[in-house]
Amino acid sequence: MLQSGKKKVEANDKWEILSCPSCHALVWAAEAVGGHSSRGEKQFTICCQQGRVRLPPVREAPSPLRELLESKKFRPHIRVANSLLAFISMGAQVDHSVTGTQGPFTFQVHGQIIHRIGSLLPEDGAPSEYLQLYIFDTDNELENRKRALTQGSSSLAFDDSVIIQLIDMMDKHNHLAKTFRHDRDSVTYEAERPPILFQYRRRGKGLV
Ligand SMILES: [Zn+2]
User: What's the 9 CA to ligand 1 centre distance in angstroms?
Assistant: First the structure.
């Protein structure tokens, strides 16, 4: 199945590209299920279960992300931007025997992929990371975020002003960021440390 709806490219071919009559997703003719609509159109379940699943339209990204997505300078670094603002780290039992080998890049895990989330505050003396960056020492948030991502070993590909705008966008539009900012503003951490949410393990952690 391909995305978004357009018209036929070639007739009488199982690789003919059609548009689902219900959701307008682009689909191969070979993906049609048996039967036709009352108007004689092929039916598809792969995209919308013949119109039974109706998803809300994709929401437009807020600014400045909307403009940045159009930027050829920014797009190659979009995962870095994502990691800069991540709330959690990804955990998985990675099979390293297949990574870094010849051929297409392969990433294989055993079992389940999980999200790791730690305490709301860093351990004594430890630098803040992930969701802690939304709560702790936010007067130095820009530097803290950059350090958490690069470990001080390299510089980022985009300007501080872009990072500041993205942080501001998260604060305005992301309900999790708003929640954690509220925690920052409403709790005196010197007097009362918030509870540990989940066990946090450092081994094998990665960025999302
Ligand atoms: Zn459909």
Answer: 18
